[in-house]
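Lab meeting, item 3. Inverse folding demo.
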């Protein structure tokens, strides 16, 4: 029994007191505490969630294949008988000879038909070689006008001669060279090509400033091997205006042989050659009506000193 006259007040439980405070005036304090606790828990969860997403994103990203190494450009050394379209075809170059010429223009020069043995061409990329020095023209300054008019004979031949050439060239121009080997004498002299003559020496006509043809035109499809008619030293080799690519050779007797409209050259000035040695390939460069070889024998290196080329060769034992 409780003591008389004394009444004990029951002690409030601290926890109960806390709830009472929360239920009355402590709500303002209790709720922010709960909110802060929840926010703190969310902050802890967020990094974990973000980390999981990042790992998943990385795993889903496909791995990049290593880039294939770029093909290195090649350097090609020109050999006798080469020309740009032949090189482009043999090496399967994209863009053909035009792209090959554009990449190597500073090496080749202004004339894409004239490439010399030993030239270094870059295949598949633009050349970084030093620009080629301009080659001096083989024709003298005193006779360019006459040379141009005379050479136009090859572009304006008489109707009879032109008809004969077209008839023969129709079957050979687009095919591989099919001419017979040049006639050769026991003395070592040869015909420049194996084809016949399409326009003779001194063929007359008003289209020539001199009144006649200063050489002979031999039938030769493009790419036919052109031979030095006799031993000698190359006086000049290069571009010569209306004659296109030409070679002029000085012989021991003081005469000069000239070979014009070549598609490519195999010799250079100062080089010693023998009779029958290839000096280039026939073509149609300069003022020309089509592939053939314009051939002259001269008493000097320049236009205007011509003599009968066939008579000269026959004197050296060449049967033409």
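The presenter then showed the designed sequence:
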């Amino acid at each position: 029994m409780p003591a008389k006259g004394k009444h004990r007040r029951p002690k409030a439980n601290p926890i109960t007191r806390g709830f009472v405070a929360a239920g009355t005036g402590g709500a303002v304090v209790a709720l922010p505490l709960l909110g802060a606790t929840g926010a703190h828990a969310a902050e802890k969860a967020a990094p974990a969630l973000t980390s999981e997403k990042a790992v998943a994103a990385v795993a889903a990203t496909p791995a990049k294949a290593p880039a294939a190494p770029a093909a290195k450009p090649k350097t090609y050394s020109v050999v006798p008988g080469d020309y740009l379209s032949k090189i482009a075809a043999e090496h399967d170059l994209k863009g053909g000879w035009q792209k090959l010429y554009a990449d190597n223009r500073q090496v080749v020069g202004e004339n894409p038909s004239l490439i010399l043995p030993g030239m270094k061409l870059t295949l598949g990329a633009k050349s970084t070689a030093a620009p080629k020095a301009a080659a001096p023209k083989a024709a003298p300054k005193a006779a360019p006008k006459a040379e141009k008019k005379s050479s136009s004979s090859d572009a304006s031949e008489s109707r009879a001669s032109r008809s004969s050439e077209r008839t023969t060239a129709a079957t050979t121009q687009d095919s591989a060279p099919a001419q017979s080997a040049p006639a050769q004498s026991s003395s070592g002299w040869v015909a420049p090509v194996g084809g016949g003559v399409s326009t003779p020496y001194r063929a007359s006509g008003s289209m020539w400033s001199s009144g006649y043809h200063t050489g002979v035109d031999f039938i030769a499809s493009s790419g036919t091997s052109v031979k030095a008619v006799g031993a000698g030293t190359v006086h000049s080799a290069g571009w010569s205006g209306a004659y296109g690519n030409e070679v002029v050779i000085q012989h021991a007797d003081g005469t000069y042989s000239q070979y014009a409209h070549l598609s490519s050259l195999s010799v250079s000035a100062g080089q010693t050659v023998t009779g029958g040695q290839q000096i280039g390939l026939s073509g149609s460069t300069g003022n020309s009506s089509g592939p053939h070889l314009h051939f002259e024998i001269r008493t000097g290196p320049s236009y205007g000193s011509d003599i009968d080329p066939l008579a000269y060769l026959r004197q050296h034992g060449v049967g033409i």
